[in-house]
């Protein structure tokens, strides 16, 4: 059984729960449940509908026994159960219809066993022992059915380079053009613009998560996240600016873990200072989109961030996006920039004031508001590349030899090399 929003957190789950329609069946069940060392109070009066109601607000048990006797359309109702039941739950159905086709269909829909009423203690005991064995078996992860998930962090080399514009646009594109369930996590806790650019109120979701990391589970994210469209949910905050950020980062790691279970894409708007304070966040990230500009300061910080990523998060694939590019009006040239960072940039986004103003006026992401503009097309290409379906031609590595680095000329690069980041920045293994 599997619910799109929920995750399996073995620590929070009861070993067993039952929902049976009649007292006679419950009386047979309770002594066996006590024998198994489980709580008899978890044997509830009620059928499939009560099970669905109850599991939509609480964690699923490891083993669930559910009575189909009062269900008019058991197969359809079982699908409803699948929506609220967490992965790994072993479900035993109970009913009074002796029909082998029904049995087969139930098993095909993910039910472990079907017990025919009237129940006997021996029959229940056998079924529960078997279900327990199935639950404890190591899960076989079938590569073809394993859920694909890409976590993308957008980091800006300097303030205002357009990292948040890219984060919201990519999340929006993944969720609409690519129809992928997507979570947008805006870790600019005080000044984030993720919700603002989608014309939404951020709510208290992220603040609650930071204050109570232990509460974070599938149900919490379902309630705390703001829906931007059918496939896009956002978690952000506008924390009061007189309240400093009080967290050791546990909440963020926990959220990453939940998102991995519940969505196909996670997009994290990750301000530079958060990367420094919570480097372990990178452990779960697959792709880094480094947003930058053709300026000297951005070149220096691109070098530092790329080198940090190489040393501390070698598993991530990095794309360098240069934003707000104006032909003939750049502080440093593309060639100098590439020579300095010792790799090619992957995408160049033109300065597009009209596009930015369109997005602001419409309360839409840059990508949505500028579908027919060149800048909008580039953002779509970036989304495709992150998904591994785009033209990776520009994703070339280090520039070999060739032009002398501008930073080299200024002797900044060798200075930076000497001042290598201290070892305490290392990602914990
Ligand atoms: N290509 C572009 N052309 C013109 N304006 C742009 C472009 N990209 C982003 N902007 C505008 O630049 C401003 C800053 O963008 P954004 O907030 O995305 O940057 P940021 O890197 O997240 O900044 P911060 O450091 O504050 O988090 C916004 O007003 C945005 O609309
Ligand atoms: Mg930002």
Secondary-structure topology with pairs:
Blueprint: E1 16-20, H1 23-35, E2 43-45, H2 48-55, E3 63-67, H3 74-84, E4 90-95, H4 100-108, E5 113-116, H5 121-136, E6 150-156, H6 163-175, E7 182-186, H7 194-197, H8 205-211, H9 218-224, E8 226-229, E9 232-235, H10 250-262, E10 265-269, H11 272-277, E11 287-292, H12 296-312, E12 317-325, H13 334-341, E13 347-350, H14 353-362, H15 366-369, H16 374-386, H17 406-409, H18 412-418
Parallel strand pairs: 1-2, 1-3, 3-4, 4-5, 6-10, 6-11, 7-9, 7-10, 11-12, 12-13
Antiparallel strand pairs: 8-9
Helix pairs in contact: 2-3, 6-16
The structure holds adenosine-5'-triphosphate and magnesium ion (MG).
Adenosine-5'-triphosphate binds at residues 156, 159-165, 188, 193, 271, 323-324, 349, 351-353, 356, 375.
The main sheet comes to: 8 strands, mixed
Q: At the first level of CATH, what is the class of the largest domain? A: Alpha Beta
Strand order of the largest sheet: 8-9-7-10-6-11-12-13
Structural class: alpha/beta
Q: Which spans of ≥5 residues are poorly predicted at pLDDT below 50?
A: 2-10, 141-145, 392-402, 419-429
- Cα Rg: 26 Å
Helical content band = 25-40%
Number of helices: 18
CATH topology title of the largest domain: Rossmann fold
Q: What can you tell me about this protein's structure?
A:
The protein is α/β, with parallel strands linked by helices and 429 residues long. It has 18 helices and 13 strands. It has two domains: 10-136, Response regulator (Rossmann fold); 150-425, P-loop containing nucleotide triphosphate hydrolases (Rossmann fold, 3-Layer(aba) Sandwich). It is elongated, with a radius of gyration of 26 Å. Helix 4 links the parallel strand 4 (90-95) and strand 5 (113-116). The longest helix has 17 residues, at 296-312. Helix 6 (163-175) crosses helix 16 (374-386). It is 40% helix and 16% strand. The strands form two sheets. An eight-stranded mixed β-sheet has the order 8-9-7-10-6-11-12-13, with helices on both faces. The structure holds adenosine-5'-triphosphate (ATP) and magnesium ion.
